[in-house]
Amino acid sequence: MADLIRLEGVTRAFGPHVALDDVTLALPPGRVGLLGPNGAGKSTLLKLLMGLIPPTSGTGRVLDQELGGDRDAAGNWRLRRLIGFMPEADALVPGLTGVGYVGLAGELYGMPRREAVRRAHEVLSYLGLEEARYRRVEEYSAGMKQRVKLAQALIHDPPVLLLDEPTSGLDPAGRDAMLRLVRELGTEHGKSVVLSTHLLADVEAVCERVVILAGGRVRREGTVTELRAARRDRFRVRVGGDGAGFGRALAAAGVAVLGDDGRGEWRVAVPDGWSNRGFFRLAAESDAVVRSLVRDEETLEELFLRAVSD
Description:
This protein has two domains: 5-227, 3-Layer(aba) Sandwich (Rossmann fold), CATH 3.40.50.300; 232-297, Alpha-Beta Plaits (2-Layer Sandwich). It has eleven helices and 14 strands. The protein has helices at 42-50, 79-82, 98-108, 113-126, 142-154, 172-187, 200-206, 224-227, 243-252, 277-285, 300-309; strands spanning 5-14, 17-27, 31-35, 57-62, 65-66, 83-86, 160-164, 192-197, 209-214, 217-223, 230-241, 256-260, 265-269, 288-297. It is elongated and about 80 Å long.
């Protein structure tokens, strides 16, 4: 497929509240991080992609299926068979066992009952829940609940997974395990993944591309490498000798010190018109020696904060 998702001027309003505002995107298959603060419009966008709600205006396609609903003219399910959705909320059915819950999801996706049950056993084993498959889901730990939610999204073997805050409520070990699973599904099983989160570290661990949403608008979009490009005005400079004197010389020259690791490396932002010879001049004047000088790559957190503030 040429595009996983293609949106043109998509807006979604709920009365006077505009949740998505003129969103235009073209995303290839792969692992995509949908990043933004709470209320940015991430969950609304996921619902649009699944066909649960139509756009107020604009057009788009997901997996070559037109936005606006999940049924074709004959009333047959379209996107539901192609997408696996893991919601942020528990969305569990009390009283059902793990295998019963996942099997029910398979039937709702359109699978015959026998095939759904067989597949439920396979997926639960793959996700490490084989021993707990006959326990009721309300008795599961937080990590097990997240994995059984992932299992119901996988049961019909969809080409695309939409994951809404998959690490929510997990401790560090559980979070790392969930992220490894999601990355493995993309790299080893060929799944395209849209990972909706407000956690930058989750995106860095899993995703190839990033879409930053804020206020219902797309603020940045591209590969992680593209977005974290080296800034022309930012450098990392390592010095030997009188580091404190070098720091004072930088400040006097109008160079903003962004960080100092205490071992002679400085992260700085230089003013317009700055020549890199200035670092060597200042070092010589302050009895220091420049050991290395490289452009400073922006962190994803810095990019996110800059995008949102813009």
